[in-house]
Amino acid sequence: MGAPRPSTGPVRPTADRKVALVTGAARGIGAAIAGELHRRGLRVALLDQDRNGARALAKTLDPQGDSAMAVHADVGDPEETRRAVRAVSSAWRSPDVLVNNAARTAPGSVWDVELDEWDALMATNLRSVLVLTRLCAPAMRERGWGRVVNLASLAGQQGGLVAGPHYAAAKAGVLVLTKVFAQELAPHGVTVNAVAPAAVQTPVMDELPAEALRRAAERIPVGRFGRPEEVAALVGHLTGDDTGYITGATLDVNGGLFMR
Known about the structure:
43% of the residues lie in helices and 15% in strands. The protein has eight helices and seven strands; from the N terminus they run βαβαβαβαβααβααβ. The chain has helices at 28-39, 51-61, 78-91, 115-143, 155-158, 165-185, 210-218, 228-238, and strands at residues 19-23, 43-48, 68-72, 97-100, 146-151, 190-197, 250-253. α3 packs parallel to α4 and α4 (115-143) packs parallel to α6. The chain starts with 18 loop residues before the first strand and ends in a 7-residue tail after the last strand.
């Protein structure tokens, strides 16, 4: 995956640009989403535990620091998360767009997962969506416009085992929470949708055996893994002004692995 490129061409003055907060933005799909939203003219706050990675990407997107900023937080920690949102709101304003992308995996059998690990993964992958949406959505509601996009997964629809049963359960919860918030916020001009990728070529795959990756790709109808930019393009579309009639939806990005 190539690094996101700085926006080119004329953009609106910074003060008039909407604000997006992307979690897990230092690399992979989150980095691609941050780059896509910045390209579309938004100011982007990159929230990640990887302080240096988020700073480097923010500097790549905007060397001047006017329209891209790094924010350090562990989304599994509600107080750190609250501080991060306050920092963005103080520097710019409360986000107009929230992308809940941060997640972690922990492979293992459903019979062997330790309860502490279950709880920690749920805090990062599911509870953080609740916490961040409750922090950001009220200001969207007051303004009468907002976009929330939650990154789910094919595992949350089919119970995938590779990323762990707690990962799959959390992502299933994200799909339901998306619908709950969508129902609550629909009358106020705020949409809430989920994007559910399957296998996407991210840095995590660099650690896997090439032969295993080849066999996995062959099982995908389109014959390859997805690209982070393909997921980011869909997320970018959902954050636009012309998608106000799409809410409570789960949009698949899976190369045909799951058709409905």
